[in-house]
Design a protein that fits this description.
- The protein is of the alpha/beta class and 229 residues long.
- Helix content is 32%, strand content 14%.
- It has a seven-stranded parallel beta sheet with strand order 1-2-3-4-5-7-6, with no helix packed on it.
- The chain is globular and about 55 Å long.
């Protein structure tokens, strides 16, 4: 009965943040970044779960598998988001409402400050959100290049306000990444000299924050290198 009542209510127009959050879950607010984000459990990452077991990988010592991410309330919220993202028929509507409500003055949004793409179907839902929020610049970092390649092959369209940045799996290496249509790339290195041609994330010189930098969101920045910390 509860599920039936919820679906009936979900046919109404979303007019409040509380209504939207009931459907999609809350947005996260990484302290480093200019706007909000959306996360799901890192332990559900397909590629990341394998890389965590590999010494020298970018996922070894994953920040989203420790600290506050282990708190019960945080984990419950992330699993709630994952379920709604994959299954709720009004998830796209709710996300469009929330992103617009939260980003009136800061038009930048990040997908997956924890977790990663689960399927092509999930990526299609994200892209629908991006298409319906053209005033927002979206950034989607991912290790799931297989999902991206399949999507590009089947759908062939990534909106211009979405920058999908595909990550190299190993620290100090570009092995495993290649240019995908309409996507950018990222690496992690121990020294800026390893990848001198990349744009080097300045956050370590800025108290761990983006400040004015928006390189991660920009398709014009083909390659961003993050300093291993």
């Amino acid at each position: 009965m509860t599920d039936t009542i919820e679906l009936v209510r979900d046919t109404t127009t979303i007019t409040t943040i509380k209504q939207a959050e009931r459907i999609s879950g809350t947005l996260s607010k990484p302290g480093k970044m200019p706007g909000h984000a959306y996360n799901i459990p890192a332990e559900c990452c397909h590629v990341g779960s394998k890389l965590r077991k590999v010494a020298g990988s970018v996922c070894s010592g994953c920040y989203a598998m420790k600290g506050r991410y282990l708190f019960r309330n945080v984990r419950d919220a992330m699993y709630y988001r994952k379920d709604r993202m994959e299954n709720h028929p009004r998830w796209v509507d709710a996300m469009v409402f929330l992103i617009r409500a939260r980003h009136k003055t800061v038009p930048y949004f990040r997908w997956f400050d924890s977790g990663d793409l689960q399927s092509v179907a999930m990526l299609r839902r994200i892209i629908e959100v991006c298409n319906r929020t053209p005033e927002i610049q979206h950034w989607l970092p991912t290790r799931e290049k297989g999902i991206i390649v399949r999507f590009v092959r089947e759908d062939g369209y990534i909106p211009t306000n979405l920058n999908i940045r595909v990550s190299a799996p190993l620290v100090d290496s570009t092995v495993g990444i290649f240019k995908i249509q309409d996507c950018t790339v990222s690496t992690v290195s121990t020294d800026d000299k390893v990848h001198p041609e990349a744009h080097h994330c300045p956050s370590r010189f800025q108290d761990g924050k983006c400040v004015e930098c928006r390189a991660c969101w920009s398709r014009n920045v083909a390659w961003v290198d993050y300093h291993k910390h």
